[in-house]
Design brief:
Keywords: Initiation factor, Protein biosynthesis
Function: Seems to be required for maximal rate of protein biosynthesis. Enhances ribosome dissociation into subunits and stabilizes the binding of the initiator Met-tRNA(I) to 40 S ribosomal subunits.
Organism: Halolamina salina
Strand content: 25-35%
Distance between the termini: 17 Å
Order of helices and strands: EEEHEEH
Number of domains: 1
GO molecular function: translation initiation factor activity
Oligomer: single chain
CATH superfamily: Nucleic acid-binding proteins
CATH topology: OB fold (Dihydrolipoamide Acetyltransferase, E2P)
Family: Belongs to the eIF-1A family.
CATH architecture: Beta Barrel
Structural class: mainly beta
Shape: globular
């Protein structure tokens, strides 16, 4: 998917990134996410996002799965509520995906 496909100003996933929904807060900067490929992964919130982007259950995020351990991932971006609604309404993310 390229940036041309998405509404203006919304970040598109790169080659190794997936849409995911935060399912559970685990503490210690870790969350459980349900990814668009059907897998549930433990994702970590990087230091650059900890205080700037508050992540809550139900948020739509972009994750980058680890190459060496598929059940884990890093959160790359959190979508604002308005952006998440636009993605769902436009059919870019469906409830069956995540």
């Amino acid at each position: 998917m390229s940036n041309d496909d998405l509404p203006e100003g919304i970040r598109a996933p790169e080659d190794d990134e997936l849409f995911a929904e935060v399912v559970e807060m685990l503490g210690a900067n870790r969350v459980t996410v349900r990814c668009a490929d059907g897998e549930e992964r433990t994702a970590r919130i990087p230091g650059r996002m900890r205080k700037r982007d508050w992540i809550r259950e139900g948020d739509l995020v972009l994750v980058s799965p680890w190459d060496w351990q598929d059940e884990k991932a890093d959160i790359e971006h959190r979508y604002e509520n308005r952006e998440a609604e636009q993605l769902r309404e436009g059919g870019y993310v469906t409830e069956t995906d995540i």
